[in-house]
Design a protein that fits this description.
- Belongs to the CpsD/CapB family.
- The chain is 47% helix and 15% strand.
- It contains 20 helices and 21 strands.
- The strands form four sheets. It has an eight-stranded mixed β-sheet, with helices on both faces. The chain has a six-stranded antiparallel β-sheet with strand order 3-2-10-5-6-7, with no helix packed on it.
- Helix 4 packs across helix 5.
């Protein structure tokens, strides 16, 4: 192994060293080494996805499409018919955007909920949760007003006997008789009609406030105009039952159509009633005039009228017709004015009674819309409600505008009447020359023409309005009836399975990441390389053997080969030296174990090796070798008369390995290590042995190792996987940087190979052997030991 050239005087830089693909290979290695966790978690993820799909209630989408007669876009259903010109008599023009807002209103949804009695739902109680059902073996009927439901209530129905059933939930338990009303607090009066009582088990029902159910359904309803070029509206309703969802959406559309026709018919009926009242009055007046003419002719015995009378009558008829039209319009204006000034009862204003300008028609349309909107709000609110008061204020403002418009129109008609009257007076002066009897007849005939013109005008308007009402159809048509999708919208089976598998595979990655993030100990060679700049002399794998000596003459195990590889690397590290110091950051990192086996490995080269137990505070080599305690280093330093030979003893593990014990534990071990006799001892031993291995205390705890560094040629610093703290790896680098101990090389101990990118690090740091190569073949593990 080549020695790294390091300038120990330079300040150390502990930045992470990376290769281009090292992180990727490390990640792949971690995944491959823990493949069974990924397989297990993937299976668990799929199992959880299956359970989720098994016990989750599916939600289906129900689609429907409406075609709306939008006058802005054309294509209305009446546009090509003979009655198309009369469609404007009944109210406002249609707009797709307006109809979308109508379909989204809570009032419309409330009507659907009341019609379908959707505030009562049934369910089948299962092992995990309750499943909604469309039909149950019993029927629940609410006998009181649905608005009396104040809170949601869920009850399970069970048979007690042939006539009695038990209603229960987590807080309530009571009995009720079949087909007989019973009161439920916060709900109202209910009656349950059942078939065979034996079928009631595991069924129940829910009662919820109408407003809550309507709000829930509104959230499930989507109303959109997907194509702005056509007047179609797409409706999407989400529900747990396909059949029930189609039924609910169909009812919603029916209620929308009914409401649309109702608004149109209200205006038409009001107009017809107004015209009918005027027709009755005009008919009576016309009949009276005709009776007067008949009596006049009879009394005057008139047979023919002279030619002059015909000419005068013809001229008078023209002016009379004009006056009649003005009088009719004035009468209509007076009626409308009286109608508008009556603010005790807000009603819709008849439309198309008189020929008005576009502005007045727009005011009537706006006024009628506000009145209808107020009536709808009063169905669920009082007149003190701010929304109702706001609408009432708007109605009052529009009414004032209409009254002002009527007054202005009346003034114009009065001026026109004066002009016609002047012309009529001119003709009357000529008629004065006609005999008195003929003149009287002309007056009566003129009055008859006025009343007859009024009658014809009102009769025409009545017929137009009646035809228009008959032609009233909804401004929307169902072109695609509600249909539910075959597959549920939620949950999506494929997505859930993929998500379950992905989460199952991600979970081990997260656990591994958090484990590495929260672990403060060295977990592998990557941690040593990342936090350290010193050379690594060797790597010792984890050993399951209880014997402390793993290196023998005949040993071919992988761990023995690792010690041989470290022995080879040590020859280059010593560079002719022979004294080696073993230390670490703390106790328990394997200094004595590595020193003992390395000594045997060196002795196998037929070298004289001395192992010195210099951990004077807590010696362990003697115990590991099973030797009795005797005289050692502390005795030699303290007793000046003692010779070196008295403290050297055979180790018992190899004939070329001797041992110097620590001796008696002294009160001042640091002082003994720098005693002159200690230096003398080191020089004497250097002349007698080829290698001297010193087992020192941890440098991270006491200063003994720093004191012994003056006697050695190389310091081996032990790092133990899964035991040494990551921050402690900086200690040997600091020692070298501050010239306290040098040179230092690391020995990584107890490395557990787990496969992947670093699977062979445990067997020689690139120079050792993997299982099944040149070392002993391990026994094959059983399948349950993977």
């Amino acid at each position: 192994m080549s020695k790294k050239n390091i300038d120990w005087e330079d300040e150390f830089d502990f930045e992470e060293k990376k290769s281009d693909n090292k992180d990727l290979l490390r990640f792949v290695g971690r995944v491959l080494s823990n493949w069974y966790w990924f397989v297990l978690c993937g299976i668990l993820g799929l199992a959880f996805a299956f359970l989720y799909l098994r016990y989750t209630i599916p939600v289906y989408k129900i689609h429907a499409k409406l075609l709306v007669s939008d006058d802005k876009k054309g294509g209305g259903m009446l546009s090509s018919s003979a009655l198309g010109d009369l469609s404007g008599l009944m109210g406002a023009k249609n707009s797709v955007d307006n109809e979308v807002e109508v379909l989204r209103t809570a009032d419309l949804m409330r009507e659907m909920v009341l019609s379908e009695k959707a505030y009562i739902g049934y369910f089948n109680k299962g092992t995990v949760h309750s499943v909604p059902v469309v039909e149950a073996p019993f029927h629940v009927e609410l006998l009181t007003n649905p608005d009396s439901i104040e809170r949601a209530f869920t009850l399970q129905v069970e048979p007690a006997d042939e006539e009695t059933i038990v209603l229960s939930n987590a807080d309530t338990l009571f009995h009720a008789r079949r087909d007989e009303p019973f009161a439920l607090r916060g709900v109202g009066l209910l009656k349950i009609t059942t078939g065979r009582v034996s079928f009631l088990a595991d069924y129940g029902f829910r009662v919820a406030p109408v407003r809550t159910v309507a709000a829930t359904f509104n959230n499930r309803l989507s109303v959109e105009v997907t194509n702005k070029n056509v007047s179609t509206i797409d409706l999407i309703f989400e529900y747990t039952s396909q059949k029930r969802g189609e039924q609910l959406l169909t009812t919603l559309i029916d209620k929308y159509v009914e409401g649309n026709l109702h608004d149109k018919n209200v205006i038409a009926d009001s107009t017809l009633a107004f015209i009918s009242a005027r027709l009755r009055k005009i008919t009576e007046e016309l009949a009276g005039v005709e009776d007067r003419i008949s009596g006049y002719k009879k009394n005057a015995q008139l047979a023919d009228i002279s030619e002059q009378s015909k000419i005068l009558l013809q001229n008078s008829a023209d002016f009379t017709r004009n006056l009649a039209e003005v009088e009719t319009q004035l009468a209509a204006l007076d009626a409308i004015s009286i109608y508008l000034r009556d603010n005790t009862n807000l009603r819709v204003v008849p439309s198309a009674v008189i020929q008005q300008d576009v502005g007045f028609n727009a005011l009537i349309q706006r006024y009628n819309e506000l009145v209808l909107q107020r009536e709808r709000l009063l169905l669920a609110n009082t007149e003190d409600n701010p929304l109702v008061q706001n609408i009432t204020a708007q109605i009052a403002g529009v009414r004032q505008d209409m009254i002002a418009n009527v007054a202005s129109t009346r003034r114009q008609l009065e001026l026109a009447k004066q002009g016609q009257q002047q012309l009529a007076n001119s003709v009357s002066s000529q008629i004065n020359q006609v005999p008195t009897i003929e003149r009287g007849y002309i007056d009566l005939a003129r009055l008859q023409q006025i009343k007859q013109a009024q009658y014809i005008f009102l009769q025409e308007k009545w017929e137009e309005t009646a035809i228009g009402r008959t032609a009233n159809v909804s401004n929307s048509k169902v072109i695609d009836s509600p249909k539910a999708e075959k597959e549920p919208f939620s949950p999506k089976r494929k997505v859930i399975y993929v998500l379950g598998l992905v989460l199952g595979l991600v979970f081990p990655i997260v656990v591994l990441y958090l484990r590495d993030l929260l672990n403060v100990r060295v977990q592998g060679m990557e941690d040593v390389e990342r936090l350290n700049l010193l050379p690594i002399l060797g790597v010792i794998a984890h050993s399951d053997e209880s014997d402390q000596v793993v290196v023998t003459k005949t040993s071919r195990s992988p761990i023995a080969e690792q010690f041989r590889a470290m022995r080879t690397n040590l020859e280059f590290a010593l560079n002719g030296g022979k004294r080696i110091l073993f230390t670490s950051s703390m106790s328990g990192e394997g200094k004595s174990y590595v020193a003992l086996n390395l000594a045997i490995s060196l002795a196998l080269l037929d070298k004289k090796v001395l192992l010195m137990e210099l951990d004077l505070r807590k010696p362990s080599v003697t115990t590991k070798l099973g030797l009795p305690a005797g005289k050692g280093f502390s005795h030699y330093v303290v007793r000046s008369e003692m010779q070196v030979g008295e403290i050297i003893m055979p180790s018992g593990v190899h004939e070329n390995v001797d041992l110097i014990q620590a001796g008696a534990i002294p009160p001042n071990p640091a002082e003994l290590l720098i005693h002159p006799r200690a230096k003398e001892l080191m020089e004497t031993l250097s002349q007698c042995y080829d290698y001297i291995l010193m087992d020192a205390p941890p440098v991270g705890m006491v200063t003994d190792a720093q004191l012994l560094s003056r006697y050695v040629d190389c310091c081996l610093y032990l790092v133990r996987q899964g035991y040494t703290y990551k921050e402690q790896i900086r200690i040997p680098n600091d020692l070298v940087a501050t010239n306290k101990i040098k040179p230092i090389q690391l020995v990584v101990n107890d490395v557990q190979a787990k496969g992947g990118y670093y699977s062979n690090y445990g067997y020689g740091y690139g120079y050792g052997y993997g299982y099944g190569d040149y070392g002993e073949v391990n026994k094959k593990r059983k399948w349950w030991q993977f």
